[in-house]
């Protein structure tokens, strides 16, 4: 009498009152890492390294200057003769471009930066400008402290001015140096942005821009989009978006890669940020790039779309309409586990949406690969797959739940209960408990209990003794509520023999 | 208050500590109580530390260290809303000295102090104990491995929680801090220790210390790598894994032990390394991949060369578990797929580890309790057999056909061996049954999972031809292990074996209750208990009382007789089977009740001297409750007989303060009291004042039972209390006040209050009413929780039903003008959706209906503006799903967080109270009742109700309301 339809009751269960938005957010907030930074992420800073086997012509030159000692370089740089300056700067640059152990620290400590910055301004000597910009690029590619030395040496403004240098090599090197500075973090990024660099970068792009130059520009733009806390300002983003959208049409994979990384940074945040990217209409192209055979394009385009589906239901809908769900199954089966993981993460966020989204997810044949990942994926992939199932169960309709169970999801879930990760174990227990409740409403509980018993009820029973109280308690509740004999009068018998505290006391000899 | 750090005090403390070791409770208990009473004093912990350091008596040293650890365990944590139990100066002094003290103490004391440090660390580390890490790391350099092991042990107890806690910013910040300070020194220590092992390869005593360090280091490795793969360990994986691999293959005669039971250092180290490798294989596959095949080979060799002795059990089971987890990963399939490999795994790893060993036989006979726990309750997680089963399962994932083939052959040949000479070869049959069981459980999964069943075994056929004959043999004491196997087979496959076969087994099982072997009669009892709980169609029990009727007498006789068999006087399985039989047989047991209750009370009297088996006791009380219920259902007057039989024992339990039993006694008394139809007997009234004694209420475990009993008193004897014990009413309210102040127990307070409101004559509580409301408001202001609000809503609506809507309005406004409006606006309207439970919702619905229709101020004061919102929320209560959201900050409020959880309340299911509906038949359908009441109101002031309803009720609610009016066939005028 006082209860609503079964459907309504089920949906109420949700993640104990956490709504969709919160379930989604949970998936993106990673503030602390114990792990090494990921290998397939985009480079923050790059050094311009001299190739190991230079052509014979320049080898001649190298031999001449390679003999300069640090002291000679210092003397040369501080000399008034432009030729000496050039030679010394070039020698310094070469040192800094060595493959191994470039003496960044020594050069900084030698106090060369202010002179190098000065050289940037000597428009009469473009070669000197070039060498100085290169040297500064490499210094800025170092640690935060080393980048700071370049910024505090006053390099930003003259570098920006070099963007309008008539000499393309100089200009290109300046773009690179600014990219390194901006890549350091939000503080320098914003200084670079406020030096009005974006319109100038935009002006450098044309159909005749050489490809290596274009790559540098794109990479620098991506660093201008990078980092949160705070994000780049709204105005800058508005300026960059059309440029990025244009670059996204390019054919070169490095350009595409960096353009996608840029968009991935812009979408890694609140829904308003995501909205700006969605609104420029790049989703169809991003989804197309998700089918790229180049890993460096696939990774960031998938990341961007994954970020977008953390957004509102509407934003997710646009991504679905662009066809992301028809691309995901093959990515879930990708040979690289990092792609599987990323794809499963994206899927988990679609599953956090309304049941219409879940319906589309089923229609696109996502359940079989999902179950396959739960079975055989690497742990980090299984983890995302579990989240997907969790979101699916809490947001899906009863019919959808039935399809989920029929797809064979329970077997791998129960197997995963032995995984050494209490959070994932807890989520699986929640999923099982939720599905049992749903089955109860459909009067299917008995069959489901039987199924679970056969899959390994002993695993749930064993979890009642888990050191983590919440895990133990949830396991206990499942056993008590669904696997304890009921008496005629409806009174539950105490599941005393499974009381975790109890058994521990019995077995502890202390 | 402070205790002086004087010799006199040390002396006193020494004497009391000595007494706490006395076997005589008359000496022990008062000493324990004394210590508890002085532990709040300043310097108490420092006195203990002094004693454990300086006492001349070794026993006192150890005792002081245990007492100290328990003191820390109980008191160190600062609980919100409760006083700090250890003064700041003591805390500082403890932290300043304990590490040094721990490191300089002998091992036995070191362990206690190390535990204490970890408890303190759990609360204080790292923020409030910043120098702990550096203090520990610095000791690594000491070169003294006694000290180093002390540090490692402490680190292990501090860090092992990383293995089971959820990822959180707080936790990971701590781990990062630990990694920064600890990972490198630990790695260096690891390398140095291994080097020392080779320099001291011929020095047994040095090796033992060094290997203890290696074990601890390996454990720390596990904890530090549990949450995620730290950058440091990824960078140093080479060092760790190469060394782990070497250690795994290492053997040194000097470290081998003669002991067959206790695992030696080598075994402990290797099994920890297996765990470490399994962790990496499971979680960090990508990074670990290139090391994995080497580990598989090493562990595989280890298994083939390790003996059957018990001391290798943990190692073997961990090693097998490692293989089991690897073999089901698709990309390692190739390591196993060769037919020779598979055969060899089955022959050399699985079959030998499924065999019944001498040690199992010993446990079966001499340590049956442990044997049963391992075999029956699934606490066999670490056993070889269990691991071997898991490996079978894992292998079947990719190689089901070949594995089944290999084992079919084994089963048949083992059964043949048995048939040749049962008395010599019975172990072969045991192994065959075990193998079938492990393979068949797999087959079940397959059947209900996706594809085909494993056709290896026809379970019923195996039952008929190999299990039944054993159980039918006339001698219940022959081949006890096979008997136990057979009974267990029935238990496990009870859902697969057809009912007619099970019915045949029942008398056989009853017969085996007489077996001398503890395991056999315990299994028989357990199997019967399991069979009796099975469900058939329509959710009725599979076996009916009629089907069991022919065996009733022999069943009951054998069950109680089994309790007299040596070693089973407090056998919980037998007691549970007794309870279950009562429950299944119902009236069929009535003729036997006089004997049964005599036997039960004798048992109760005996065990109350020293209650030691909580499960046994619980089922015994359940059986008592069942006897009462079943008998009194047919003949309520028989309650007197039970009181006669039980009260004597109960009195003794209460007088001797047998803490474990008191909550049970109160529950049984509640059941008895509720069975009385007339006014409360005087024997109960004499007890009433005692129930209000604060000391009883201090034990958390007593509270639910006591509240339940007081409710029974109020239900049956409110008039007697009002007339003959009116002076006890303040005491009763005092209990309410105490309960209401606690977040954990406030709902119990409300149960009591609701019973008072419902049953006590109004005039007897008149003078206290306002005070009650003020107390509730204070609690609302100080600490509002969802649970409290829900109970509060039910209470005020019950009050409204009982005393009238106007009375409710008046009492609120009497406390403070306009208060009633505030309660409506801030609590009732916004929170009513949270009320849960059928009766609770009904009370609220009827109460609110009264407020809407029988409260004049709602119609013609400033409260009128709340009339429609209130109606709207009532319709919401009827129609919308319950609001079960809980604010984030409340998620962790849980009963178990309250201190004293150890005396948890054990509710007796068969003393269960029927749900009580104070509204009862007065209102059957609250929706119709609302319609009728509105109609009545509208006749009193025509025109007003329809206009209020139509102007501000939302459309959906209005539609529902019209539905109610239609259902009640009334209209609003």
From TrEMBL, chain A:
ARM repeat start-end pairs? 111-154, 154-196, 281-323, 323-351, 365-393
TM stretches of this protein: none
Could you tell me which InterPro entries the record lists for this protein?
Answer: ARM-like, ARM-type_fold, Arm_3, Armadillo, Importin-a_IBB, Importin-a_IBB_sf, Importin_alpha
Q: Output the Gene Ontology terms for molecular function.
A: nuclear import signal receptor activity
* Annotated ranges, domain IBB: 1-56
Query: What keywords appear on the UniProt entry?
Result: Protein transport, Repeat, Transport
Tell me which GO cellular component terms the UniProt record holds: cytoplasm; female germ cell nucleus; NLS-dependent protein nuclear import complex; spindle
Q: What does this protein do?
A: Functions in nuclear protein import.
The entry assigns this protein to a family as follows: Belongs to the importin alpha family.
Q: What is this protein called?
A: Importin subunit alpha
Could you tell me which species this protein originates from?
Answer: Equus asinus (Donkey)
Q: Name the gene that codes for it.
A: KPNA7
UniProtKB/TrEMBL annotation, chain B:
Where found, per UniProt?
A: Cytoplasm; Nucleus
A cellular component annotation (GO) from this entry: cytosol
Which branch of life, at top level? Eukaryota
- Keyword hit for Nuclease: no
Hey, what's the signal peptide range on this chain?
none
Biological process terms from the Gene Ontology for this record are: protein export from nucleus; protein import into nucleus
Listed A to Z, the keywords are: Cytoplasm, Nucleus, Protein transport, Transport
Please describe what this protein does.
Export receptor for importin-alpha. Mediates importin-alpha re-export from the nucleus to the cytoplasm after import substrates (cargos) have been released into the nucleoplasm. In the nucleus binds cooperatively to importin-alpha and to the GTPase Ran in its active GTP-bound form. Docking of this trimeric complex to the nuclear pore complex (NPC) is mediated through binding to nucleoporins.
What's the protein called, per UniProt? Exportin-2
Which species is this UniProt entry from? Equus asinus
């Amino acid at each position: 009498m006082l209860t609503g339809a079964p459907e309504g009751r089920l949906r109420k269960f949700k993640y104990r009152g956490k709504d969709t938005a919160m379930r989604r957010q949970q998936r993106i907030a990673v503030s602390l890492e114990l792990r090494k930074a990921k290998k397939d992420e985009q480079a923050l800073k790059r050094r311009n390294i001299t190739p190991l086997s230079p052509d014979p012509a320049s080898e001649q030159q190298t031999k001449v200057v390679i003999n300069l000692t640090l002291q000679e370089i210092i003397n040369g740089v501080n000399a008034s003769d432009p030729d000496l300056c050039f030679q010394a700067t070039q020698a310094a640059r070469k040192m800094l471009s060595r493959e191994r152990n470039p003496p960044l620290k020594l050069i900084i400590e030698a106090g060369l930066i202010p002179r190098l910055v000065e050289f940037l301004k000597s428009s009469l000597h473009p070669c000197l400008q070039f060498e100085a910009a290169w040297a500064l690029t490499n210094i800025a590619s170092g640690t935060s402290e080393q980048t700071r030395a370049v910024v505090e040496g006053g390099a930003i403004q003259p570098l920006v001015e070099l963007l309008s240098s008539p000499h393309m090599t100089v200009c290109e090197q300046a773009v690179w140096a600014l990219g390194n500075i901006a890549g350091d973090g939000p503080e320098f990024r914003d200084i670079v942005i406020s030096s009005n660099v974006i319109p100038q970068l935009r002006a450098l792009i044309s159909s005749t821009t050489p490809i290596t130059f274009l790559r540098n520009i794109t990479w620098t733009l991506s660093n201008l989009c990078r980092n949160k806390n705070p994000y780049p300002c709204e105005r800058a983003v508005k300026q960059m978006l059309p440029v990025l959208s244009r670059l996204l049409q390019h054919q070169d994979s490095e350009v595409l890669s960096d353009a996608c990384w840029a968009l991935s940074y812009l979408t890694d945040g609140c829904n308003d940020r995501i909205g700006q990217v969605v609104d420029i209409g790049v989703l169809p192209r991003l989804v197309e790039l998700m089918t790229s055979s180049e890993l460096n394009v696939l990774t960031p385009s998938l990341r961007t779309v994954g970020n977008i589906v953390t957004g509102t239901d509407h934003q997710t809908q646009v991504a679905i309409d662009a066809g992301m769900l028809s691309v995901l199954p093959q990515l879930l089966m990708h040979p690289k586990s990092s792609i599987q993981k990323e794809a499963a993460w994206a899927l988990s966020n679609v599953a956090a949406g309304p049941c219409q989204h879940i319906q589309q997810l089923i229609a696109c044949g996502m359940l079989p690969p999902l179950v396959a990942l739960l079975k055989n994926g690497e742990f980090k992939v299984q983890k995302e797959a579990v989240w997907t199932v969790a979101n699916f169960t809490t947001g899906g309709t009863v019919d959808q739940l039935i399809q989920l169970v029929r797809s064979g999801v329970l077997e791998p879930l129960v197997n995963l209960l032995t995984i050494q990760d209490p959070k994932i174990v807890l989520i699986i227990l929640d999923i099982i408990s939720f599905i049992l409740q749903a089955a109860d409403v459909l009067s299917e509980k008995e069959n489901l209990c039987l199924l679970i018993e056969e899959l390994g009820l002993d695993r749930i029973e064993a979890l009642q003794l888990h050191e983590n109280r919440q895990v133990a308690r949830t396991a206990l509740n499942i056993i008590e509520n669904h696997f304890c004999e009921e008496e005629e009068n409806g009174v539950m018998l105490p599941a005393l023999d499974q009381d975790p505290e109890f058994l521990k006391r019995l077995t502890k000899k202390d | 208050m402070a205790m002086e750090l004087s010799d006199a005090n040390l002396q006193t403390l020494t004497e009391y500590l000595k007494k706490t070791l006395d076997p005589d409770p008359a000496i022990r208990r008062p000493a324990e109580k004394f210590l508890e009473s002085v532990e709040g004093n300043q310097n108490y912990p420092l006195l203990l530390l002094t004693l454990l350091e300086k006492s001349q008596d070794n026993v006192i040293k150890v005792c002081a260290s245990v007492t100290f650890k328990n003191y820390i365990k109980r008191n160190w944590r600062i609980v919100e809303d409760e006083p700090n139990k250890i003064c700041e100066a003591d805390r500082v002094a403890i932290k300043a000295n304990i590490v040094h003290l721990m490191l300089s103490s002998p091992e036995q004391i070191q362990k206690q102090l190390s535990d204490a440090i970890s408890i303190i660390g759990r609360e204080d580390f790292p923020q409030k104990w910043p120098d702990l890490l550096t203090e520990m790391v610095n000791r690594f350099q000491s070169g003294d491995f006694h000290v180093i092991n002390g540090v490692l042990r402490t680190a292990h107890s501090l860090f092992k929680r990383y293995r089971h806690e959820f990822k959180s910013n707080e936790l990971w910040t701590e781990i990062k801090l630990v990694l920064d300070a600890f990972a490198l020194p630990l790695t260096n220590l690891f390398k140095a220790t291994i080097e020392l092992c080779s320099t001291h390869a011929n020095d047994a005593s040095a090796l033992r210390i060094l290997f203890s360090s290696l074990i601890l280091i390996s454990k720390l490795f596990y904890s530090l790598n549990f949450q995620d793969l730290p950058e440091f360990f990824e960078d140093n994986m080479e060092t760790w894994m190469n060394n782990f691999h070497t250690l795994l293959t290492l053997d040194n005669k000097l470290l081998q032990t003669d002991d067959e039971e206790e695992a030696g250092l080598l075994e402990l180290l290797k099994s920890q390394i297996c765990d470490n490798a399994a962790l990496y294989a499971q979680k960090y596959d990508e990074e670990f991949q290139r090391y994995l095949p080497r580990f598989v080979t090493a562990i595989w060799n280890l298994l083939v060369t390790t003996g059957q002795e018990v001391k290798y059990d943990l190692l073997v089971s961990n090693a097998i578990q490692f293989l089991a987890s690897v073999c089901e990963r698709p990309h390692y399939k190739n390591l196993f797929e060769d037919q020779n490999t598979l055969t060899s795994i089955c022959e050399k790893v699985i079959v030998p580890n499924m065999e019944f060993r001498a040690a199992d036989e010993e446990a079966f006979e001499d340590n049956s309790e442990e044997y049963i726990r391992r075999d029956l309750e699934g606490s066999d997680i670490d056993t070889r057999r269990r691991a071997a089963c898991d490996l079978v399962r894992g292998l079947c994932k990719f190689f089901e056909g070949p594995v089944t083939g290999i084992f079919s052959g084994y089963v048949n040949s083992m059964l043949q061996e048995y048939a040749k000479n049962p008395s010599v070869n019975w172990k072969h049959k045991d192994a065959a049954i075990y193998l079938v069981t492990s393979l068949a459980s797999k087959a079940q999964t397959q059947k209900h999972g996706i594809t085909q069943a494993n056709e290896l075994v026809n379970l019923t056929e195996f039952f008929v031809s190999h299990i039944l004959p054993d159980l039918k043999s006339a001698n219940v004491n022959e081949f006890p292990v096979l008997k136990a196997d057979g009974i267990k087979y029935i238990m496990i496959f009870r859902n697969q074996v057809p009912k007619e076969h099970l019915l045949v087994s029942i008398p056989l099982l009853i017969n085996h209750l007489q077996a001398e072997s503890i395991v056999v009669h315990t299994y028989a009892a357990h199997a019967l208990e399991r069979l009796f709980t099975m469900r058939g169609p329509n959710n009725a029990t599979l076996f009916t009382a009629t089907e069991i009727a022919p065996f009733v007498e022999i069943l009951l006789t054998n069950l109680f007789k089994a309790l007299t068999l040596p070693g089973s006087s407090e056998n919980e399985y037998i007691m549970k089977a007794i309870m279950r039989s009562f429950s299944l047989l119902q009236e069929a047991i009535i003729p036997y009740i006089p004997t049964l209750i005599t036997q039960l009370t004798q048992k109760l009297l005996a065990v109350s001297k020293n209650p030691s088996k909580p499960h046994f006791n619980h089922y015994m009380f359940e059986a008592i409750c069942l006897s009462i219920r079943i008998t009194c259902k047919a003949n309520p007057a028989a309650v007197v007989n039970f009181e006669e039989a039980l009260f004597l024992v109960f009195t003794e339990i209460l007088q001797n303060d047998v803490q474990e039993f008191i909550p049970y006694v109160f529950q049984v008394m509640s059941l008895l009291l509720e069975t009385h139809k007339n006014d409360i007997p005087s024997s109960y009234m004499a007890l009433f004042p005692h129930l209000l004694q604060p000391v009883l209420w201090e034990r958390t475990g007593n509270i639910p039972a006591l509240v339940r009993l007081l409710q029974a008193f109020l239900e049956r004897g409110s008039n007697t209390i009002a007339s003959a014990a009116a002076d006890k009413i303040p005491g009763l309210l005092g209990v309410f006040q105490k309960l209401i102040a606690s977040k954990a127990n406030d709902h119990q307070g409300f149960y009591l209050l609701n019973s008072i409101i419902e049953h006590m004559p109004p005039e007897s509580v008149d003078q206290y009413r306002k005070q009650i409301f003020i107390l509730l408001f204070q609690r609302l202001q100080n600490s509002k929780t969802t649970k409290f609000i829900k109970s509060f809503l039910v209470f005020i609506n019950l009050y409204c039903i009982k005393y009238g809507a106007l009375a409710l309005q008046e009492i609120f406004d009497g406390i403070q003008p306009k208060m009633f409006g505030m309660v409506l606006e801030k609590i009732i309207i916004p929170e009513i959706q949270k009320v849960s439970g059928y009766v609770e919702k009904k009370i609220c619905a009827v109460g609110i209906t009264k407020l809407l229709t029988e409260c004049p101020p709602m119609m013609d004061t400033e409260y009128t503006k709340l009339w429609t919102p209130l109606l709207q929320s009532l319709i919401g209560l009827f129609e919308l799903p319950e609001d079960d959201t809980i604010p984030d900050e409340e998620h962790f409020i849980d009963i178990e967080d309250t201190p004293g959880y150890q005396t948890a309340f054990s509710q007796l299911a068969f003393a269960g109270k029927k749900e009580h509906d104070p509204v009862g038949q007065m209102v059957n359908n609250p929706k119709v009742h609302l319609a009728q009441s509105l109609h009545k109101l509208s006749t009193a002031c025509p025109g007003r109700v329809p206009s209020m309803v139509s102007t501000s009720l939302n459309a959906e609610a209005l539609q529902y309301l019209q539905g109610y009016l239609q259902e009640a066939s009334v209209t609003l005028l």
